[in-house]
Amino acid sequence: MRLHKKFVISVLGAAISWAGYAQADAAKPISKPENLVATIEGFAQPESVEADVSRNYLYVSNIAGHPLEEDGIGYISRVRPDGSGLEVKWVEGLHAPKGLALDGKRLYVADLKELVVIDVEKGKVIARYPVADAKMLNGIAISPEGQVYVSDFFGNTLYQLTDGELTPWIQSSQLDTPNGLSISGDQLTVVTWGSDIQEDFSTKSPGHILQVSLKNGKLGTLTNTPRGNWDGVVDVGGQWLVSNWLSGEVVSVGVNGETDKVLQLNPGSADLGWNSESGILWVPEMQLGRVTGYRIDPLALDGTRVGKN
Questions:
Q1: Which of 98, 129, 201, 249 is the most buried (most CB within 10 A)?
Q2: What CA–CA distance (Å, rounded) separates 308 from 298?
Q3: Comparing C-alpha atoms, which of 211, 230, 247 is closest to residue 153?
Q4: Is the torsion defined by CA of 58, 226, 32, 289 positive or negative?
Q5: Which of 63, 72, 58, 31 is nearest to 45 (CA)?
Q6: Nearest to 178, CA basis, from 234, 130, 232, 115
Q7: How far is CA 55 from each of CA 50, 148, 206, rounded to the nearest angstrom?
Q8: How far apart are CA 213 and CA 183, in angstroms?
């Protein structure tokens, strides 16, 4: 499904208006989960967090302006996991950066209509892969073999980086407004926002969780898939942690669709980051301009609420 730009901008305008409401509503107290380990302030619409375990950094994408405008004011921040050494505008000159994925020393950034690659050791952009037909590039996942996949939120398309070009791999209305991506074995997990987007950015038909074969591109829906306006997804070993942007919830989802609420945060929980060594889940709280870290024990997710609220 292809959407006209006027419609897309209208929808995002409504989303921004709603976001103002969400931020005001966020003033109501939400109890601090006992597993909160870090709160890092100072970001501008943080959309994604990527943990660099070997270098002990977090990378954070900042939309900063309109999420659909090529305005050049977006940027990537770099900070230590304890909140020290924050470099707010570590790499500048982006448009509306969203999803992040690290492969060695290369940080891949979904920047609206192009895939941007940053050398993290030099702190410089080293490659750009533009896509003229893209609506809003969003989630990124990289296979163990180094194959890069990118979702187009409004374009109902999954792209693949092949021979120096970002080309369509799957285009289908069944993608249902694809958002976050994660790879487990030979399956690409896609969490979706849903269809029939309303003025408050809710949907008449909420999103679900898809499984796509990396071998043949066959689309399937996770058994007993939970419904929601899903944003980020990370694989924590045999299950996923998934964020619901509109409700602020983070839930665990098992391979058979069994679901349990892990965290109840404010609206705006976006593209999650996971550090498997420290067991810390990083959540960009987009409407509050901050990133929060929660210690999660994957073994405790089987029917057990980890974050109390």
A1: 98
A2: 16
A3: 230
A4: positive
A5: 63
A6: 232
A7: 12, 22, 38
A8: 10
CATH class of the domain comprising 5-300: mainly beta
**Taking the model in full, what pTM does it have?**
0.90
> 46-90 pLDDT, tens per residue?
999 999 999 999 999 999 999 999 999 999 999 999 999 999 999
- Take residue 16 and report the two structure tokens written for it: 């921004």
Per-residue pLDDT of 237-258, as tens digits, reads 889 999 999 999 999 999 999 9
> Is the CA virtual torsion 113, 275, 231, 148 positive or negative?
positive
Secondary structure of the chain in the HEC alphabet? Answer: CCCCHHHHHHHHHHHHHHHHHHHHHCCCCCCCCCCEEEEEECCCCEEEEEEECCCCEEEEEECCCCCCCCCCCEEEEEECCCCCCCEEEEEEEECCCCCEEEECCEEEEEEECEEEEEECCCCEEEEEEECCCCCCEEEEEECCCCCEEEEECCCCEEEEEECCEEEEEEECHHHCCEEEEEEECCEEEEEECEEEECCCCCEEEEECEEEEECCCCCEEECCCCCCECEEEEEECCCEEEEEECCCCEEEEEECCCCEEEEEECCCCECECEEECCCCEEEEEEHHHCEEEEEECCHHHCCCCCCCCC
Domain spans of the chain? 5-300
At 274, the pLDDT band (50, 70, 90 cuts) reads very high
pLDDT digits 0-9 by tens, 158-196:
999 999 999 999 999 999 999 999 999 999 999 999 998
